[in-house]
């Protein structure tokens, strides 16, 4: 039986075997991690969670294969400023929006960046997103990474896509250029967490979160290698940290070592002023139709120019 069954703004969760005899609020919070436990407990208390046509308490146990029916409500209304920022939408329908984010655009407001982000642009162009957590943004890209991002246009799509991302059913493929010549592709399976000293950076650390990056060689050129990179997990700065750790930092990455001096003929800065990283392909199941979607964002001009000049 599927774990999730969708109907408008209601979701039915089937209790998995590993959560047999667990608390009701614990099961829901483990399966719907984008919602806080306090919000889930509030839904249970006001009767928006039903198990076998009954309203249980948060501490009541649920059992394997029981169906939990939840009416999903917006948790917090977004109080960010809608801003008329140009965005490149390459696909949209009633359930999803896929954006090809330009380099230099921050995805979500945060410390030091209160506005002029992708979120501000999304709620300007699609006002209904104000009722979706994080304006429907499912995953992120670094400010200076370009490429594809998927946005949920309603609560049902949001929950389904978040679940698919957690289950590693959304495939993200990147193109990058690194310093140094790689001989073969490979897989980096090393945990990532907050850098113990540089708190704004991430690092490979013993007690970090599981992180897996696959890379394949596309071509080698002047002291550099062009790679296809496939994310299995999605930790902050994952590709940049992993490639730097094995000694092949991304070209132009001034945080993780990609700007160290290497002898080459090409004037790199005349081609690109950021890390050479682009999210080129996105493959996922449509949250409503279950149709397999594969979308592509063509290489931006700066990375095209860089590759041409390195050849």
Describe it:
The chain is an alpha+beta fold. The protein has three domains: 4-71, RNA-binding S4 domain (Structural Genomics Hypothetical 15.5 Kd Protein In mrcA-pckA Intergenic Region, Chain A), CATH 3.10.290; 88-166, 2-Layer Sandwich (Pseudouridine synthase), CATH 3.30.2350.10; 171-310, Pseudouridine synthase (2-Layer Sandwich), CATH 3.30.2350.10. It is built from six helices and 17 strands. The protein has helices at residues 24-31, 37-45, 118-125, 155-166, 238-245, 301-310, and strands at residues 4-7, 10-14, 22-23, 49-51, 61-62, 67-71, 88-92, 96-101, 146-152, 171-179, 186-189, 192-194, 202-204, 212-221, 224-231, 277-285, 292-296. The strands form four sheets. Strands 7, 8, 9, 10, 11, 14, 15, 16 and 17 form a nine-stranded mixed beta sheet that branches. The protein has a four-stranded antiparallel beta sheet with strand order 1-2-6-4. Strands 3-5 form a two-stranded antiparallel sheet. A hairpin with a 6-residue loop joins strand 16 (277-285) and strand 17. Helix 1 crosses helix 2. It starts with a strand and ends with a helix. The mean pLDDT is 88.
């Amino acid at each position: 039986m599927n774990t999730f069954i969708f109907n408008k703004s209601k979701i039915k969760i089937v209790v998995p075997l590993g959560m047999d005899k667990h608390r009701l609020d614990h099961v829901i919070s483990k399966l719907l991690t984008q919602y806080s436990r306090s919000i889930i407990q509030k839904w249970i208390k006001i009767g928006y969670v039903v198990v076998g046509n009954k309203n249980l308490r948060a501490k009541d146990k649920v059992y394997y294969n029981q169906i939990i029916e939840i009416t999903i409500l917006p948790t917090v209304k977004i109080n960010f400023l809608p801003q008329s920022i140009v965005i490149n939408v390459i696909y949209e329908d009633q359930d999803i929006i896929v954006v090809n984010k330009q380099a230099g655009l921050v995805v979500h407001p945060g410390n030091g960046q209160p506005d002029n982000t992708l979120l501000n642009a999304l709620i300007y162009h699609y006002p209904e997103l104000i009722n979706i957590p994080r304006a429907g943004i499912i995953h992120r890209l670094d400010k200076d990474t370009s490429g594809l991002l998927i946005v949920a246009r309603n609560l049902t799509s949001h929950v389904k896509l978040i679940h698919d991302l957690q289950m590693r059913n959304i495939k993200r493929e990147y193109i990058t250029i690194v310093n140094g010549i790689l001989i073969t592709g490979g897989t980096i399976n090393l945990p990532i967490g907050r850098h113990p000293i540089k708190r704004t950076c991430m690092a490979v650390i013993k007690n970090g979160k599981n992180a897996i990056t696959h890379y394949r060689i596309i071509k080698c050129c002047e002291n550099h290698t062009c790679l296809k990179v496939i994310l299995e997990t999605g930790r902050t700065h994952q590709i940049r940290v992993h490639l730097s750790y094995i000694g092949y930092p991304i070209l132009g990455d001034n945080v993780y070592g990609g700007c160290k001096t290497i002898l080459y003929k090409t004037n790199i800065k005349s081609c690109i002023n950021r890390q050479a990283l682009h999210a080129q392909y996105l493959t996922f199941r449509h949250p409503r139709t279950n149709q397999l979607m594969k979308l592509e964002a063509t290489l931006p001009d700066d990375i095209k120019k860089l590759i041409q000049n390195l050849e």
